[in-house]
Structures are given as C-alpha cells and as structure tokens.
Amino acid sequence: MDGPRLRQVFANVMKNAVEAAERTPGARVTVSLYRRHTAAVVEIADNGVGIEPEHREKIFLPFYTTKPTGTGLGMAIVKKIMDLHGGEIDIDSVPGRGTMVRLVIPRSPVPAAVEVG
C-alpha cells in the first residue's frame, strides 16, 4: 500500500464530507472502519446536502464539479488511487439527507515465513 496516496484518498473524501455537512444544521461526519474478508473497509458518512442522481455518475470525471470554487479533481484522484490499489469505491447518497462513501481496500498479503539455514 502506498501510504501517502491513501492519505490523499482519505483527505479528499473527508474534505468533501465536511464541506457538504457544514451547510446543514447539526452537521455530522462519521468514520467507520471494519474488516470484510481480505479487505479493510472505511466508510465516511455525512448528513449534508447529498448528491443529486444526475451528478452521481459524473463525480469521478476529471474537472467535473458542482462547487463554485472546486477544481473537479478530488474524486477523480480518489478513484484513480483506489483503482491502482485494486480497491473499490461505492457511494450511497440521498439528496438533502447525506452521503456515505465506502472505500474497500484489499489487505496486503502476509509474507510467507522464510527459513534460514
């Protein structure tokens, strides 16, 4: 795993969650971590504005943004890094209620023991 790149994934998704939630009374962002078979799963959820259905398929396209000051690169970068790690990204969103981003990161195989002698 490439630690700096995964940190960028988490930073980009968290930034989006905070920005979406901060426009909502009672703003909340939650992070859950668990293991699923041979993968680590990180879920980042907010109670923000949500993503309209017509935007959902486009959010991974470079330079696509719905934000007045956004570059449209954050989620494109997230998708590319997840693909490079053999991971998955899944988004569940309800407009006006919030978004949950699920990042499924395959666990690195444990190296086999090596006998010396």
Topology, element by element:
Elements: H1 3-21, E1 29-36, E2 39-46, H2 53-56, H3 74-84, E3 88-94, E4 98-106
Antiparallel strand pairs: 1-2, 2-4, 3-4
Helix pairs in contact: 1-3
Describe this structure in words.
With 117 residues, the protein is α+β, with helices and mostly antiparallel strands. The chain has one domain: Heat Shock Protein 90. 29% of the residues lie in helices and 27% in strands. The chain is built from three helices and four strands, in the order H-E-E-H-H-E-E. The longest helix is centred in the N-terminal third of the chain and has 19 residues, at 3-21. The model has no long low-confidence stretch (mean pLDDT 86).
Low-confidence stretches: none
Please state the CA-atom Rg, rounded to the nearest Å.
16 Å
Mean pLDDT: 86
Distance between the termini: 31 Å
CATH superfamily: Histidine kinase-like ATPase, C-terminal domain
Strands of the biggest beta sheet: in what spatial order? 1-2-4-3
